[in-house]
Amino acid sequence: MGSVGAKEIPVLLSPEGLRIDGRRLDELRPITIHVGALKNADGSAFVEWGANKVMAAVYGPREVHPRHLQQNNKAVIQCKYNMAAFAVDERKRPGLDRRSQEISKVIGEAFESVVFAEEYPRTSIDIYIEVLQANAGTRCAGLVAASLALADAGIPMVDLLPAVAVGKVAGKIALDLKKEEDNFGEADLPMALVPQSGRLVLLQMEGHMTEDELAASLELGVQGCREIYEKMKAALRERYALGAGGPA
Amino acid sequence: MKPGPGTYRTGGKVYASVLGLLSERPPVVQVIPLSGRYIPKTNDTVIGTVTDVQGTFWLLDIGAPRWAPLHMTGTPWQVEVGETDRFLRVGDAVVVQVESLDPTGRIGVTMNGEGLGKLDGGTIARISPARVPRLVGRNGSMIDSIRHLSGADIAVGQNGRVWVGGSPDAIHRVREVLRIIEENAQHSGLTERVESYLLATTPTDAKGPAVPPEEHAHRDAPPRNPNAGEPDDEPIDSLDDEPTEPGPE
Prior knowledge:
heterodimer; A: Ribosomal Protein S5, domain 2; five-stranded mixed β-sheet; five-stranded antiparallel β-sheet; 4 helices; 26% helix; 27% strand; B: CATH 2.40.50.140; six-stranded antiparallel β-sheet; three-stranded mixed β-sheet; 14 strands; flat
């Protein structure tokens, strides 16, 4: 994630087993979610996850642009992940780059496996993810935000898609890496879970870990995803809170 | 229980596929969506704007997943091939009815029918399609009361587009009412709240509190193009401003 300068490697794990920000190894950063943050979009969500701030907007199903991408039997899912120039300490060169293309692709494909796209042939479901502030784990935060935006847009899906990264920090498996842990740790393993089926629809890895560590990481990650899943459902309930009078 | 709309079945269990309210009417279980774009149903009356003009048809944006073609034969006008743009242009607003739907999602609409036609003047506001039943109320109680107390002409499309005509003040108050409904649709006592807002803001130019609204003579049918059948060269100011569409913040 960009250059960090020639600083010394920070102490990632204290002798007491606490991480650089005081978390335990299996602890998530604090997450706050605001569903429906944008008025113009069909669905939207703003997620603050540790120091990450990510906005997602969903439009559609709507007419496909450009036309040639249209599919006769299902909706196409077009995902665009972008990081603002001011999202990191050293200015990120704005616009498309290999990293954002890759993330757009993997997130779009994750959603293709949960959205019932056959219900809307010849249309497009457009997902926009804007990272306003980055501190490692933005693809997971973006996925969570986009998933909530899709739900807010009334799009039929198998389930919400919670996501989290697990990594190896100072020789230990740790949940939800923050920037220093990502930069100076030994491995990073983002994943997205379909809670309904227990399937993973996104899994990437950077760095090295043993087979046993990978197994432990997956287990920890799934557990983290389930924790995030509860937060996501709570955020949707809050947004659509029903008054005493019940539905109209 | 049979999985109905808004659900799917897997492994012998039924799950919700959309965010919404559970409705169990044996033998069908379904989820009624609380949000989302307008999903067309046949015989729905909807308000659309022209997005494209072709030789024999117009394409309308009715807020559905796809644009709806309105064929020139589906209008009360004598339209010659190639002269479609003399009748409707991009940006014009119309009231049409959903006539046909096919499995590929194509939406056929017609302008032949009572209360259908081109909209002139006024402004178009948007609410979430899921809130339309709330806006209309039981047997139209809510919308009648809004018409009466605001003095505005109002046409409600099932797609959540609401045409409002009348004095600028009346339009403003109706837009505010729409916002109130959008944000409080789930709450009880909404009708009272809307009525008290309208009563409190009724202009008191003379004296007495509730000045009777000026023009509820034609407050029923949505206004028709007065010179229907004639191409209309006047640009209309149906604005699509401030879409309140998918719901309150």
